[in-house]
Write a structure and sequence with these properties.
- This protein has 279 residues and is mainly alpha-helical.
- The longest helix has 27 residues, at 209-235.
- It has helices spanning 11-19, 25-33, 35-50, 69-80, 88-95, 138-143, 194-206, 209-235, 237-252, 259-269, 271-274, and strands at residues 113-116, 133-136, 170-176, 181-186.
- It folds into two domains: 11-149, no CATH class; 170-274, no CATH class.
- Helix 1 (11-19) crosses helix 4.
- The two termini are 34 Å apart.
- 47% of the residues lie in helices and 8% in strands.
Amino acid sequence: MKFIVKPEITVEAVLTACISNLSDVALKDEYTAKVRILKSHENILERKIRSLELHTIPQNVQISAIANETALKKLYTDKLSKKGQLAREIYDDIMILAPNEKCPYCNHRPADTLDHFLPKANFPIYSITPINLLPACTQCNKGKLGSIPTRASEHTLHPYFDNIEDIQWLECIIVQVKKIKFEFRVKHLPRTDVMLRRRMEHHFASYGLNELYKSQASSEYMNIESHLKRIFNNKGKEELREFLFEAYLSRAEVDINSWQTALYKALHDNEDFIEGKFL
């Protein structure tokens, strides 16, 4: 769940690029004449994102009988996302917004596609609206494919509008020390807005982040387990504690909410682990 500065380009500019080489003259003229409708819906979308009212946006809106649902979706598939098209440059510009080329939803896998925050199948009017397009990994994109909020608490975090990077919200729990097992969750933070916490938990569950992170944490632990055993056996528990603390700090300096940061903090803070009960 990473914040991204939203793209400056407008839907009008995207539309201009998409229809610049459109062979259907009647459809091109229709888009040109009705661009104000797309601009109006772009403004509506931003307001609804900020006010957590996406669930109130009507589905399957079209511009006109000519610029219908199918035509709107084709602007994305045949123009914006298609390699070799003039508008593809805009697609690529949005893709490179991904922090460290990672998916902002899971903050782990490579961003390799554009996600429609509101699915174009249900909201074709937003098929090429920049604030509805986000770099994502295929798994996160498919994992929420067609997911539409029905209430405010079901709004997953929007990387362009929800910045929680100053909150250390990710927590790793050591379920058992011997034959170690991990779980990840959204940390209980008393001062966090209740609605924000509900949305964070919904986001966490929607994208299957516990499953992703605990799998990665288990692999990481397997790679360092023998080293941790040597530290404990040869230098004692205080050296083990210090090693884990330094490992935690170095990762927290990069990202306070990476699964790696949460993992090393959990290992450092668990007294049973420090006492060597993992042996």
